[in-house]
Each structure stands twice: as structure tokens, then as C-alpha cells.
Amino acid sequence: MARASEADAIHRREHPEPSPLAGVEYAASRREFDLFRLADSPTDDVIRRFLERYVDPAERVRARSALTMDDFYTLLTFASRCALSGVRAREGTMVRLGLAALSMIDSARVDWRDATLAAALLSYAAGRAEIDSLALFAAEAATSEPTMARILGRFDREPVVNLMPWGHREISTEGGVVLASDDGRPYVPTRDLFSISMEFVELLESDVWRVSDVKVGAAVPAVWLQRSKTRAAVSALRRLRACTQVSAKLLETASPDAPSQMLLVFLAEALNAKDARTLAESAGPDKRVESFFVGFGLNAAELCAIVVSRSFVQGVESYENSNSLERFRSGMAAILSKHIRE
Questions:
Q1: How confident is the model at residue 342 (pLDDT cuts 50, 70, 90)?
Q2: 176: left (phi over 0), alpha (psi -120 to 50) or beta
Q3: Are the C-beta atoms of 246 and 265 separated by less than 8 Å?
Q4: Residue 276's closest CA among 232, 219, 308?
Q5: Higher pLDDT, 230 or 263
Q6: What is the C-alpha to C-alpha distance for residues 56 and 79, in angstroms, rounded to an integer?
């Protein structure tokens, strides 16, 4: 990223013309970066009109030169959102728009891995829409700068049919398909862990936390199980059927130290109720010593939720303490109990 920033600074000095996307951006506060859910965004329409203005190859070159690194990341976000929309609709219009956005990017001024991931998501969406991805990717590669053309050309030869190597998984929900992050661990739940996790998301976001990611195929790090360090807890971890991870950031309005705060919720389906209870009882810090985090666990049948929070900046106190974090317990317990009864 540092190299891309330096390249962008040099380019902007040599090409100071105003950007045609100046002031156009997505916002985390509006949930526009999320692929585990899809929020409507007026920014999509602005970018769509921008792409329609620059169909001519020569015009694209001039527009690409005027764009900034921030603009390119806005286009990458648009492309990823197009991939999710394309998977949902099972048709190619959004895939074509996403590829047009990628063709506008100067790959020297972004992290090439970010561009490759966006292209992979669009390749997967093209396959789900059953359109001719080879012709589609080739057409946009022809109007791209050389490195981006090679990135797009890769997916002519290697269409993506499985998102797991790309750190994602398609999940069907009542609200539509989503593209959840995937850590690649075993994920064979017998209950709808993702939907339960999304209820946890709603609970957290009714408070001072904003969820940035919901991950499937996750693991519960043993470091969060310090309340009672037992071999039974370690064995229970090894036998998990599946686990999700909800990651949240503190709202900036809640504290001047908000950027240093984190909250995680792990929702695990254990092999049996005994394992779930063991994990819940082990979750949290060792009360006999000073700890770097606060947390607790709770269980219902074979489901176990583990909640932890901390500051990850040395010298900055955690926003949550062992008492304040307890305000989430009853709500989470009600969610778990509801799903056990269903």
C-alpha cells in the first residue's frame, strides 16, 4: 500500500487535473463496504453514470489519469458490490458494470491483490449468472492498462467456481444471498449460525458498536478461554462443527479512543451440549490475574457464544469492562434460546 500511495503522489504532481470522481465515496457508517449484507447506496448510481460517460477508450485513458488512489478504491468497492448484486440477480448487467469499473483502475496506484480479489468475485458472479465470462473479461481487458489487463485475463483462463480459496463463501439468507468472509475452517453447522449471528449484529448495532465483518469457517482462539483452562475446553474446540465470528468497531461518537477498540462475538456449534457448556464456562479472562481483555460465554443446547472486548493499543484503556459488557448477555441468551426452540 505504501508503494501505491507513493506512486499516486508522484502521479498527482505530474497530472494535477481535477478528478471526475472528486467527493464521490462510500462510507462504513452506511454499511456500504459490507458483503455480508447489501445496503442500498446512491453512490452506485453516481459511479454508474461516470462509467457511462467514459465508453470511448481514449476518454477512459484520460479519465484514469485524472483519478486518485482514493477514487480507485471507490471503484474497487463498487466492483465488489456489483459482484454481490450479480450473484443475487443471476444476470450479467452488474457484472459488466463491475468489470468496467476495474478497467478504469491504474493498478500501480492500488494494491494489486485488492484488484485481483474484486476480479475474482466478479468472475464467480459471472459463473452464477451463466454468462460468457471469457468474452466479458477479454473485452474489458482490452481497454485496461497492461497490469490490470493481465489480472482480468487471468480469469479468462481460470474462472472462479469456488470462493473459498478467495476467502469468501456464498450464504443464502432470508434477505438474499450474501458473500461472507470465510477463514476456511470446517463449517458444517446443523443450525443456521449465520442468521443467528446477524441477530447478534442487530443487537450490537443498537448499542455503540458497528459491525465490520461477519465471518464463517472461523475458529475460537484458545487465548479467549482463560477463565478455567482445561483440557476439556481445548478438546471441545477441536470438535466444533462450525463457528462464525462477528467483528465490531466502536462508534467514534462513543469515545475519543474509539479507533483503538474492538469487540468480537464467536458463535460456535459444538459437537454436543456438554462441549458447549464447557466452552461457555471457560470463556473470559482469568479473574486471579490482570488481563488484557474482558469477556464472557453463554450456551444453549449445543450452541455457544463467546464475547470479548479490548483495546489493542498499549496504554489505552478498554472501553468495555467486565460489568459493562454484561449488558449484552440477556439479549444474546434470548436469541440463542429462540433458535434452540425452533
A1: low
A2: left
A3: yes
A4: 232
A5: 263
A6: 20
